[in-house]
Amino acid sequence: MGAKLLFVAAFLGCGLGCTSGPGSLAGDVAGLIAQLKTGDDSMRAQAAEALGGYGPAAREAVPALAAALRDEYEQVRRAAAASLAAIGADKTAVPDLITALKDTDAEVREAAAQALASAGPEARAAVPALRGLLHDPSEDVRQAAAEALARIDPRACKDGR
C-alpha cells in the first residue's frame, strides 16, 4: 500500500512534467525511480511511463529505465523504452537498448530504436543491430530502425557500414 501511495502522491502532486515548487522535480523523479525498482508490475509500468513525461529533466532516471528494459513484464519494458526516447538516451543505456532490439514484443523493439535515435552518434554501436531490424516483420519497427540509422550515422544507411 505504501508504494502505491508514494506513486499516486508523486503523480497527482505534480502531474506529468510540472513542478509544484523548488526541488520538487528532483523529489518526484527520485520517487518514481524508486517505484520503478520496487513496485508491482502495474506500478512499475506507470512509474516508467510517468518518468518519460518529464522529458530531458528526468535524465537521472536513464540508468533505472535502462535496467527496466530487462523487466519480465512487457508493459514495463515498453514504457521504459518509450521514456528513454522521450528523455533522451545516452551511451550508458545503449547496451540495454541494443538487447531490447531483440525483444519478442514489437512495441519494445520500436521504442528501443526510437530511444537509440535520441542518443544520436553516441549509439553508433547499435548500427549493426538496427540494420538487422530493417527486415523486421513489423513495418513500424522497420521504420523506427531506418529513422534511428539516419540519426545515428546517415552513412550507415547508404554504404552498409
Briefly, what is this?
With 161 residues, the chain is mostly helical. Helix content is 68%, strand content 0%. It has two domains: 1-76, no CATH class; 89-161, Leucine-rich Repeat Variant, CATH 1.25.10.
Report on this model:
This protein has two domains: 76 residues, no CATH class; 73 residues, Alpha Horseshoe (Leucine-rich Repeat Variant), CATH 1.25.10. Helices cover 68% and strands 0% of the residues. The protein has ten helices and no strands. The radius of gyration is 16 Å and the shape is globular.
Specify the number of helices.
10
Query: How many individual β-strands?
Result: 0
Globally, the shape reads: globular
Amount of helix:
55-70%
| Straight-line N-to-C gap | 52 Å
Structural class: mainly alpha
The total tally of domains equals 2
Unreliable sequence segments:
1-22
Can you give the mean pLDDT?
87
Report the biggest beta sheet as strand number plus sense, adding barrel if it closes.
none
Strand content: under 5%
CA radius of gyration is 16 Å
Q: Give the helices and strands as they follow along the chain.
A: HHHHHHHHHH
